[in-house]
Amino acid sequence: MAEEFASAPHFVGARIPRTEDSRLLRGEAQYLDDIQIPNLLEMAFVRSPYAAARILSVDSSAAWNIPGVRAVFTFADMPFVLPQNGPSPIDQPVLARERVRHAGEAVVAVVAESRYIAEDACEAVHVAYTPEEPVLDMQAAQKDRPRRVHDAAPNVFYHQEYETEGFQAAFDTAPHRLTMTFQTTRQTACSLETRGIIAAADPFSGRMTVYCGTQSPHRLRGDLAEMLQMEEHLLRVIVPEVGGAFGMKAATYPEYLAVVQAARLLRQPVKWTADRVESFLSDVHARDDIHDLEVAFDQRGQIIAVKDHLMADGGAYASYPFSGAIGETSLAAKVITGPYDIAHLSTVIDCTYSNKVPLGAYRGVWGPVASFVQEGMVDRIAQFLHLDAAEVRRTNLVQPNQLPYRNAAGMLYDSGSFTESFEHALAQLDYTRWRATQEQARRVGKYLGIGLSNFVEPTAMASSEAGSIGYESCSVRVEPSGTVTAWLGLGPSGQGHETTMAQVLADQLGVDLEHIVVLHGDTDAAPLGGGTGGSRSGPLGGGAAMQAGRKMRERLDVYAAHMLEAAVEDIAWEHGRAHVRGVYARHVSLRDIARIAYNDVRQIPSGLPIGLEVTERYQPPRPVSFSNGTHAAVVEVNPSTGQVTVLDYVVVNDCGTLINPLIVEGQIHGGVAQGVGAALLESLVYDDSGQLLTTTLMDYLLPSAPLVPRMRIEHLVTPSDGALGVKGMGEGSLIASPAAIAGAVNDALSPWGVSFERLPIAPRDIVTSLGRSSAAPV
Amino acid sequence: MNEVPVTLWVNGQTYAVRVSPRKLLSDVIREDIGLTGTHVGCEHGVCGACTVWVDDRPTRSCLMFAIQAEGHAVTTIEALAQHGQLNVLQQALHEEHGLQCGFCTPGIVMTMEAYLHEHPNPTVDDIRDALSGNLCRCTGYQNIVAGVQKAARVFAQNSSGATSAAGNESTHLSEGGREYV
Ligand code: FES
Ligand code: FES
User: Separation of A28 CA from ligand 2 center, angstroms?
Assistant: First the structure.
């Protein structure tokens, strides 16, 4: 693709440390809670102590009497909702309206001079409730038992069925069938920085400025305008530094509306920052899936047909704009066969309401459970047939000559390296050696297991938790002095877009990295774009940067050709200078061109506009492009303590062209660590009355450094046919890793005949099930 | 609640502030003194994002009241980069891509900087143990460990010119996973 570049690509593909780092390392970056605005008031919420209750009365008189309290709001004061159209007709009120539907739902908002005072005042608000029976079990909820969460709608808010033609015959006539139920408990993104928002009238323009760590700045602006009935052009959203988001910060939340409305009503700046307990009670939860599965296969382990009932507990409301339950199930149903060639599929989806926190996006959305189901099913087949787990995978993998491949759900895998990545992973891991070691270890009473996980990762989709804008935008301006400023509509939270997008632009423009600055997350400056989510920023944002860069270069080429009296085709760029190809002595600098473009405009070559500014929008040629890869894990399980130690971890990843391998690897490391958490630690636990028991980091355990394995990563490159050949890759590592770890644990415990089908697998689960198991280890 | 006068000594400067006795050291550093590099991730002592030094010892500023810091020397992340130049550990974390969103980073730098002063030749497992009180949701720790190893090597070279144990560990580990039986 060399002809796409001004000069040979120097920057795309290079391991370049990030431009973002310096301000972060020095502690100078400004996150939401670091922003200081004069007269800033703080908001705190009175949250429901019940999972389900009627609100009888709210008495806030004592709160008003506390010095420093400025306002106490209920729904009556801000009667706004997050609307739900489409399959789920139930709106989510900004503050609870008559009923509360999950523990932690915001009921009253207090605004005070400081957070300390606001919290004091919250304690002084008296809300009287009549508790109702909570709906907590998703399978009972499907039958509206014990009752409906919302009187106006059945609990099942999304139901879908799909079946390939000839499914039943294929299923019925298959030599073998197995039944299994896979489950993931509730988990959550748990970014280290909590959510927050500031709304402040801009004293210069009189408009409202909103600071918020959102993944989709333009969408949030649109949402606020629509829901609060404001004019969109009178709103400005600025995304400050964001301390992790992982899909969870893509949603528009009730608190956001409450803060903006409070700032309007009080005519004073207002801030809300969640404390950690509030995060657990109000950030969207994720996962919480059940898959009732039947699989039919032949004696070689070739899978013939899969039948899956997918269920997800959506919580009290469909999170806006992306219902996690629908995302978890409908996307899983489309890729539940993974990279395996399975002809027949039958899926039924049921998403239900419950009296729990709304379900939303968390990195990988549908993926961790789909991989867990798909790899678990392959392992169970291997066990049943006494075949090697790797062999059964080989039997089923989509072969290179089948690509592009349309899976049983109708999804087109545009390209990939399924067999290659699998074989490379086995070789990297030294699979045969570990199998031998496993045998030896068992003889001395040590239990090792190997887990294999092949994944597909649909990326760069038109619609994701970031919204449904199927393109990304980039504006580029060559400044009068010849340096370059670019703006994108992205909402990054640590992915390094300031570096990667500059790399793309640098190659397109033939300028050095330090002469480019990439800005994002300000709706006043950035062109309207979708935002960051669904692994779209690399392929779509990168595509927009490439296209804008190329457009700008075409204009610069005309200038250079004109000034150097050469043909446009003979112009080449390097280090911010254009020269006539092969004749370095004949050159002109970007600075010279910029001076003409802005200041000496009579010299502009005819046909070109004044100035050097372009805005381009990039829409990929396909609705989705698939990344793929293989994860392989070796673990040791201590049968008496249930402790799992990861001994080795290999990743083979194929996301097409890599813009910056250093950043890609960082994304993989982080995703695998989250996968270790998902497989072994992380669980949001509700008790029988609907109380969330895990509301601190002492109860909801995140993986710490000693638990996370050292990973070895190999890249394969099967380019997409989109811009630069880039595919997305933000989620694959968390899609594949829980399955790899869980598979390894199950493999280690195979002498007991124990196999876990529920995540996470905690030490307690292991000890208990080994104690119960009658099978004696070999 | 009544405010009381407190004199704090932060990064070598004296600050006279009036704060409520219940106000956390983390909040006073961030709000009253205006040094927002110290982050708050949990406010209950688990994540380590709020780590500062109190008399050169890494301390969770969310677990201390500001009034308890009177008479002690407090050091925050802002004091580490001299004249805007990253220090050895900061530079190594940059080169090894040991940070993504950066929210955990100040706490990690404060923890590991102090650790390296006391343990100049850590093994990889030592580093992971020393990091265990600092949560990072983005990096999976691998590149943080690599950055700390690199910083340890630079320190060792600066002080003796000899190759450090950390250097050996890293060569060994980059070849593959852990040895077993
Ligand atoms: S904020 Fe102090 S340990 Fe988390
Ligand atoms: S870099 Fe984001 S939490 Fe560590």
Answer: 15
CATH number of A2-24+471-618: 3.30.365.10
Among A462, A471, A473, A522, which residue's Cα sits nearest to residue A221?
A: A522
**Which residue, among A762, A732, A730, A729, has the nearest Cα to A745 in the 3D structure?**
A762
Tell whether ligand 2 has an atom less than 6 A from the beta carbon of residue B103: yes
Which of A479, A490, A478 has the alpha carbon at shortest distance from A523?
A490
Average pLDDT of the segment spanning B28-37: 98
Alpha-carbon gap, residue A239 to A216, rounded angstroms: 9
Flag if B100 and A672 touch (Cβ within 8 Å).
Answer: no
> For A224-238, what is the mean pLDDT?
97
- Let me know if domain A48-132 sits in CATH 3.90.1170.50: yes
Select from B131, B134, B138, B145 the residue to mutate for testing ligand 2; criterion: most ligand atoms less than 8 Å from CB.
B138
Note whether A48-132 and A285-463+622-770 share their fold. no
Distance in Å, CA A188 to ligand 1 centroid: 19
User: Which of A24, A37, A712 best tests the B interface by mutation, with the highest count of B CBs <10 A?
Assistant: A24
* Residues A442, A409: Cα–Cα separation, whole Å: 41
Q: Residue A547: what are its φ and ψ, rounded to 5°?
A: -65, -40
- The CATH fold of domain A285-463+622-770: Aldehyde Oxidoreductase; domain 4 (3.30.365)
Tell me the chain B residues in contact with residue A27 when contact means C-beta distances shorter than 8 Å. 35-38, 76-78, 80, 106
Please give the share of chain A, as a percent, with pLDDT higher than 70: 97
Q: pLDDT digit string (tens) for A35-83?
A: 999 999 999 999 999 999 999 999 999 999 999 999 999 999 999 999 9
pTM: 0.96
- What span, in angstroms and rounded, lies between the C-alpha atoms of A548 and A552? 6
The domain containing residue B25 runs over which residues? 4-79
* Neighboring chain B residues of A649 at a CB cutoff of 8 Å: 177
Q: Model ipTM?
A: 0.96
Residue of the CA atom closest to atom 3 of ligand 2: B136
Contact criterion met (CB < 8 Å) for B135 and A28 = no
| Closest ligand 2 atom to B41 CA | 3
| H or E, element range at A391 | helix A389-396
Domain A190-283 matching CATH 3.30.365.10: the answer reads: yes
Of A252, A222, A491, A210, give the one whose Cα is nearest residue A358.
A252
- Measured between beta carbons, the chain B residues lying within 8 angstroms of A698 are 44, 46
Among chain B residues, the shortest Cα distance to A666 is held by B139
Q: What is the pLDDT of residues A328-373, one digit of tens each?
A: 999 999 999 999 999 999 999 999 999 999 999 999 999 999 999 9
Please answer yes or no on whether B100 and A704 come within 8 Å at the CB atom: no
What DSSP letter does each residue of B35-90 carry, written as one string? -TTS--S-SSSSS-TTEEEETTEEEEGGGSBGGGGTTSEEE-GGGTSBTTB--HHH
Q: Do A193 and B105 count as a contact with CB atoms less than 8 A apart?
A: no
Ligand 2 contacts CB of residue B94 (under 6 A): no
Q: Where are the domains of chain A?
A: 2-24+471-618, 48-132, 190-283, 285-463+622-770
